[in-house]
Amino acid sequence: MKTRNKQLSVGFDLDGVILYNPARIARPIIAFFKKYFLKRDTTKFYYPKNTLEQCFWSFLHKSSVWPAPGINDLIRLIKKNKIKAYVVSARYESLKSDFNNWMKKIDPEKTFSGYYYNDKNDQPHLYKEAMIKKLKLDIFVEDNWDIVAHLRDKFKAQNSCLPAGRAKLKICWIYNIFDRYIHYKYKYSSLTKVIEAIKLDL
After folding, report:
1. Does pLDDT of 153 surpass 90?
2. Superfamily of 8-201 according to CATH
3. Which end of the chain, N or C, is surrounded by fewer C-beta atoms within 10 Å?
Protein backbone atom coordinates (compact mmCIF):
# COMPACT_ATOMS: atom_id res chain seq x y z
CA MET A 1 0.00 0.00 0.00
CA LYS A 2 1.36 3.42 -0.90
CA THR A 3 1.95 5.83 1.99
CA ARG A 4 1.02 9.46 1.36
CA ASN A 5 3.17 12.40 2.46
CA LYS A 6 0.18 14.36 3.70
CA GLN A 7 -3.09 13.76 5.45
CA LEU A 8 -6.11 13.36 3.28
CA SER A 9 -8.60 16.22 3.62
CA VAL A 10 -12.10 14.78 3.71
CA GLY A 11 -15.42 16.61 3.83
CA PHE A 12 -18.61 14.99 5.09
CA ASP A 13 -22.18 16.10 4.58
CA LEU A 14 -24.23 16.04 7.79
CA ASP A 15 -27.75 14.69 7.23
CA GLY A 16 -27.68 11.18 5.78
CA VAL A 17 -23.89 10.89 6.11
CA ILE A 18 -22.62 11.82 9.58
CA LEU A 19 -26.17 11.55 10.92
CA TYR A 20 -28.42 8.60 10.23
CA ASN A 21 -31.57 9.83 8.52
CA PRO A 22 -34.18 7.18 7.61
CA ALA A 23 -36.27 9.79 5.76
CA ARG A 24 -33.60 10.08 3.06
CA ILE A 25 -35.09 6.98 1.44
CA ALA A 26 -37.72 9.31 -0.02
CA ARG A 27 -35.11 11.36 -1.95
CA PRO A 28 -35.50 9.62 -5.34
CA ILE A 29 -39.29 9.85 -5.05
CA ILE A 30 -39.11 13.59 -4.39
CA ALA A 31 -36.56 14.03 -7.20
CA PHE A 32 -38.84 12.15 -9.63
CA PHE A 33 -41.81 14.34 -8.67
CA LYS A 34 -39.76 17.55 -9.08
CA LYS A 35 -38.36 16.51 -12.45
CA TYR A 36 -41.41 15.03 -14.17
CA PHE A 37 -44.36 16.80 -12.53
CA LEU A 38 -42.99 20.17 -11.44
CA LYS A 39 -40.47 20.31 -14.33
CA ARG A 40 -37.77 21.65 -12.00
CA ASP A 41 -34.03 21.11 -11.80
CA THR A 42 -33.53 18.40 -9.17
CA THR A 43 -30.34 20.04 -7.87
CA LYS A 44 -32.28 23.16 -6.87
CA PHE A 45 -33.69 23.13 -3.38
CA TYR A 46 -36.51 25.12 -1.87
CA TYR A 47 -35.56 27.90 0.53
CA PRO A 48 -37.96 28.51 3.47
CA LYS A 49 -38.74 32.22 3.36
CA ASN A 50 -40.91 32.96 6.39
CA THR A 51 -41.07 31.88 10.03
CA LEU A 52 -43.75 29.24 9.45
CA GLU A 53 -41.79 27.66 6.60
CA GLN A 54 -38.59 27.76 8.62
CA CYS A 55 -40.30 26.00 11.53
CA PHE A 56 -41.54 23.32 9.15
CA TRP A 57 -38.03 23.01 7.66
CA SER A 58 -36.62 22.57 11.16
CA PHE A 59 -39.20 19.86 11.86
CA LEU A 60 -38.21 18.00 8.68
CA HIS A 61 -34.58 17.94 9.78
CA LYS A 62 -35.54 16.22 13.02
CA SER A 63 -35.55 13.06 10.89
CA SER A 64 -31.77 13.00 11.43
CA VAL A 65 -32.06 10.96 14.59
CA TRP A 66 -28.58 9.88 15.74
CA PRO A 67 -24.93 9.65 14.65
CA ALA A 68 -24.49 7.16 11.83
CA PRO A 69 -22.74 3.83 12.42
CA GLY A 70 -19.12 4.41 11.46
CA ILE A 71 -18.74 7.74 13.28
CA ASN A 72 -16.44 6.17 15.87
CA ASP A 73 -14.25 4.67 13.13
CA LEU A 74 -14.04 8.12 11.56
CA ILE A 75 -13.01 9.77 14.83
CA ARG A 76 -10.32 7.11 15.37
CA LEU A 77 -8.86 7.93 11.94
CA ILE A 78 -8.77 11.62 12.84
CA LYS A 79 -7.09 10.99 16.19
CA LYS A 80 -4.41 8.90 14.46
CA ASN A 81 -3.73 11.93 12.21
CA LYS A 82 -4.59 9.89 9.13
CA ILE A 83 -7.10 12.43 7.83
CA LYS A 84 -8.30 15.97 8.36
CA ALA A 85 -12.09 15.86 8.51
CA TYR A 86 -14.62 18.62 7.97
CA VAL A 87 -18.39 18.70 8.28
CA VAL A 88 -19.83 20.59 5.31
CA SER A 89 -23.60 20.84 5.59
CA ALA A 90 -25.94 22.69 3.24
CA ARG A 91 -28.35 23.39 6.10
CA TYR A 92 -29.66 26.93 5.83
CA GLU A 93 -28.92 29.70 8.36
CA SER A 94 -32.26 29.14 10.14
CA LEU A 95 -30.97 25.72 11.29
CA LYS A 96 -27.82 27.14 12.90
CA SER A 97 -28.82 26.24 16.46
CA ASP A 98 -29.65 22.62 15.64
CA PHE A 99 -26.45 22.32 13.58
CA ASN A 100 -24.30 23.57 16.47
CA ASN A 101 -26.04 21.22 18.91
CA TRP A 102 -25.22 18.24 16.70
CA MET A 103 -21.58 19.30 16.44
CA LYS A 104 -21.33 19.25 20.23
CA LYS A 105 -22.86 15.77 20.32
CA ILE A 106 -20.81 14.11 17.59
CA ASP A 107 -17.49 15.76 18.35
CA PRO A 108 -17.25 16.71 22.05
CA GLU A 109 -13.44 16.50 21.92
CA LYS A 110 -13.28 18.79 18.86
CA THR A 111 -11.30 16.39 16.71
CA PHE A 112 -12.76 17.65 13.41
CA SER A 113 -10.79 20.39 11.64
CA GLY A 114 -13.88 22.48 11.00
CA TYR A 115 -17.68 22.60 10.81
CA TYR A 116 -19.47 24.58 8.12
CA TYR A 117 -23.12 25.21 7.31
CA ASN A 118 -24.83 27.21 4.59
CA ASP A 119 -25.15 30.51 6.48
CA LYS A 120 -25.60 32.57 3.28
CA ASN A 121 -28.49 30.33 2.15
CA ASP A 122 -26.91 29.46 -1.19
CA GLN A 123 -28.19 26.60 -3.30
CA PRO A 124 -26.79 23.40 -1.69
CA HIS A 125 -24.94 22.09 -4.76
CA LEU A 126 -23.24 25.46 -5.35
CA TYR A 127 -22.39 25.85 -1.67
CA LYS A 128 -20.74 22.43 -1.52
CA GLU A 129 -18.88 23.05 -4.76
CA ALA A 130 -17.45 26.27 -3.30
CA MET A 131 -16.51 24.62 0.01
CA ILE A 132 -14.69 21.76 -1.73
CA LYS A 133 -12.57 24.36 -3.51
CA LYS A 134 -12.06 26.49 -0.39
CA LEU A 135 -10.98 23.58 1.82
CA LYS A 136 -9.01 21.91 -1.01
CA LEU A 137 -10.61 18.57 -0.24
CA ASP A 138 -9.31 15.26 -1.53
CA ILE A 139 -12.61 13.47 -0.82
CA PHE A 140 -16.17 14.64 -0.26
CA VAL A 141 -18.90 12.34 1.05
CA GLU A 142 -22.51 13.10 0.06
CA ASP A 143 -25.80 11.20 0.13
CA ASN A 144 -27.85 13.17 -2.41
CA TRP A 145 -27.36 11.73 -5.90
CA ASP A 146 -28.25 14.94 -7.74
CA ILE A 147 -25.57 16.82 -5.81
CA VAL A 148 -23.07 14.00 -6.37
CA ALA A 149 -23.73 14.09 -10.12
CA HIS A 150 -23.30 17.87 -10.19
CA LEU A 151 -20.00 17.74 -8.29
CA ARG A 152 -18.73 14.82 -10.38
CA ASP A 153 -19.35 16.72 -13.60
CA LYS A 154 -18.07 20.03 -12.22
CA PHE A 155 -14.72 18.63 -11.13
CA LYS A 156 -14.26 16.17 -14.01
CA ALA A 157 -12.17 18.59 -16.08
CA GLN A 158 -10.07 19.55 -13.06
CA ASN A 159 -9.29 15.90 -12.32
CA SER A 160 -8.30 15.22 -15.92
CA CYS A 161 -5.74 18.04 -15.78
CA LEU A 162 -3.95 16.79 -12.69
CA PRO A 163 -0.44 15.40 -13.27
CA ALA A 164 0.17 11.66 -13.03
CA GLY A 165 0.55 10.47 -9.46
CA ARG A 166 -1.40 13.31 -7.89
CA ALA A 167 -4.57 12.31 -6.05
CA LYS A 168 -7.79 13.21 -7.85
CA LEU A 169 -10.81 14.55 -6.01
CA LYS A 170 -13.25 11.76 -5.15
CA ILE A 171 -16.93 12.39 -4.59
CA CYS A 172 -18.15 9.45 -2.51
CA TRP A 173 -21.85 8.69 -2.58
CA ILE A 174 -23.87 6.98 0.17
CA TYR A 175 -26.84 5.60 -1.72
CA ASN A 176 -30.19 4.32 -0.48
CA ILE A 177 -32.22 1.30 -1.52
CA PHE A 178 -34.21 3.12 -4.22
CA ASP A 179 -31.03 4.54 -5.79
CA ARG A 180 -29.03 1.32 -5.79
CA TYR A 181 -29.47 0.72 -9.56
CA ILE A 182 -27.47 3.87 -10.45
CA HIS A 183 -23.97 3.00 -11.64
CA TYR A 184 -21.24 5.04 -9.97
CA LYS A 185 -17.63 4.20 -9.17
CA TYR A 186 -17.48 5.60 -5.63
CA LYS A 187 -20.78 4.23 -4.38
CA TYR A 188 -21.25 2.96 -0.81
CA SER A 189 -24.11 1.71 1.34
CA SER A 190 -23.07 3.40 4.60
CA LEU A 191 -20.60 5.66 6.36
CA THR A 192 -18.86 2.53 7.64
CA LYS A 193 -18.19 1.39 4.07
CA VAL A 194 -16.90 4.85 3.13
CA ILE A 195 -14.44 4.80 6.03
CA GLU A 196 -13.22 1.36 4.92
CA ALA A 197 -12.62 2.76 1.43
CA ILE A 198 -10.81 5.83 2.77
CA LYS A 199 -8.44 3.57 4.71
CA LEU A 200 -7.40 1.98 1.41
CA ASP A 201 -6.38 5.43 0.13
CA LEU A 202 -4.06 6.11 3.07
Report:
1. yes
2. HAD superfamily/HAD-like (3.40.50.1000)
3. N
